Amino acid sequence: MKKLIKKISVLKFLVVCFRVFGNRHGIFKRTFLLNGFFAEYFEFKKLKKNKSFKINFEDLYPRIYDKTGTMPVDPVYFYQDTWCAGKIFENKPEHHYDIGSSAEFIGIVSKFVPVTMVDIRPIPVSIPSLSFKEGSILKLPFADDSLLSVSSICVIEHIGLGRYGDPIDQFGSEKAASELVRVLVSGGNLYISVPIDSESKVYFNAHRVFSRSYVLELFGNLSLVEEKYVYGNNLKDSYDKSLGFGTGLFHFKKQP
């Protein structure tokens, strides 16, 4: 432990702790918002009673962070999910296979095309159009050259970091990419998204970030059909190094 502490400066350690325990609002902001909540509650109580509903103090359920000027939305998930769904609908596969993406996103896609989802963690919900296979992206339960349409959105950057219960592995992303290429049939489409920056690095244990050139190297046996990039709240058609950290969306195709 002493050797570990010597390798990590106090400032860096505090930054890590803040990322884990920091709150998005300070005590004064939270107090202000809570005061506003109670002011509205007592105003609500003074209004003409709606006898169809009971209102008890013990049932109060403060949601003090939801009153925002714009609708909260994660631009990365918004853009990558709509982009990937559009690609799948455009190519109209008879069956689509997803490896580890968001269950909500894949559930919606499955209402338009039957989907088989693979993940190391079973999903506790089910609908007829979505089938599930428990399995690892490091050893996919499919034969070589067998799948025509595959997605893995916001996944390979996490492999090998232990965040989701997978084994620690310095080369997790490389092995995952190799498996995705292995199962894709000639003429098959692969849709992926990963964090992008000017150089590849690890933000342990959240995710890796890739340089554009390294993504193209990992999937060098495939042809690049399309790439798009999420920077802040914007979706761009091309990579822009000057914009720094972003998310890359890639459509690859396996040529005969």
Overview of the molecule:
It is a single chain. With 256 residues, the protein is of the alpha/beta class. It folds into two domains: 2-59, no CATH class; 75-253, Rossmann fold (3-Layer(aba) Sandwich), CATH 3.40.50.150. The protein is 32% helix and 23% strand. The chain is built from seven helices and ten strands. The protein has an eight-stranded mixed beta sheet with strand order 3-2-1-4-5-10-8-9. Strands 6-7 form a two-stranded antiparallel ribbon. The radius of gyration is 23 Å and the shape is globular. 28% of the residues are buried.
Key structural traits:
256 residues, alpha/beta, Rossmann fold, 2 domains, eight-stranded mixed sheet, two-stranded antiparallel sheet, 10 strands, 32% helix, globular
What gross morphology would you assign? globular
Low-pLDDT residue intervals, each spanning 5 or more residues = none
**Proportion of strand residues:** 15-25%
Q: Which sequence of SSEs, written as H and E, runs from N to C?
A: HHHHEHEEEHEEEHEEE
In angstroms, what is the radius of gyration?
A: 23 Å
Largest sheet: 8 strands, mixed
Helical amount = 25-40%
The total beta strand count reads: 10
Number of separate domains: 2
Describe the structure concisely.
This protein is α/β, with parallel strands linked by helices.
Topology:
Elements: H1 2-7, H2 10-21, H3 27-46, H4 75-91, E1 96-99, H5 103-109, E2 115-119, E3 130-134, E4 147-153, H6 172-183, E5 184-196, E6 201-203, E7 207-209, H7 212-218, E8 223-231, E9 234-236, E10 246-253
Parallel strand pairs: 1-2, 1-4, 2-3, 4-5
Antiparallel strand pairs: 5-10, 6-7, 8-9, 8-10
